Amino acid sequence: MTNETGARLGILMLDTRFPRILGDVGHAGSWDFPVRYAVVPGATPEAIVCDDIEPFVQAFIAAGRDLIAEGCTGIATTCGFLALIRPRLAEALGVPVAASALEQAGQIAACLPPGQRVGILTISAATLSPAHLHAAGVPEGSPVVGMEGSGFARTILGNLPDLDVAQARAEMVQAAQRLVEAHADVGAILLECTNMVPYATNIAAATGRPVHSIHSYLNWFHAGLLPPRFD
């Protein structure tokens, strides 16, 4: 298949039916450049976030190879928990892989003033394990707050067809406020979940902290895949 759009970034999608609103990594309008998508059958949010990821590794690799065959020169995913398999994806695919927003944590931390650290907002603190954090290179001791019990988490993890955007926005802001109130030394917030991006502006306004996400990460990643021309 030809890459008629000229897309260099290929994005591996979970198998979802929840709304992907503007800002969500899975909404093509969220990007200022063309992207290509490939859905990994059966890889639902609950399966990847809450269950065993191993049965899906080969399916992610196969979908990634399809995107590369279509002209993509870099691969990303739509779930921060996939940091756990990024090394295997990169080895099998032979191209750069940006699997998780968490992978930028070290770079963000290096930009902060002394005495400040990165705080992480995740869809599920209960299942975001030390192994996930280590695989992504998250600095040890980075505080984590989850969205357990929220309508947002129920919609995304339950793969439900309707999303109350106003409620999700309020829940996200409240969780971020809990994060900075409990950890006053948090100098920047990192959104693990790719579906949190539409609320980043609200979180930044409510907390007074910079907010990083898969959107900021993939804009940086894509800039390397297709550098801008200035001539």
From TrEMBL:
It holds the Pfam family Asp_Glu_race. It comes from the Bacteria. GO terms for molecular function: amino-acid racemase activity. InterPro entries: Asp/Glu/hydantoin_racemase, Iso_Racemase_Enz_sf. Belongs to the HyuE racemase family. This is Aspartate/glutamate racemase family protein. The lineage of its organism: Bacteria, Pseudomonadati, Pseudomonadota, Alphaproteobacteria, Rhodobacterales.
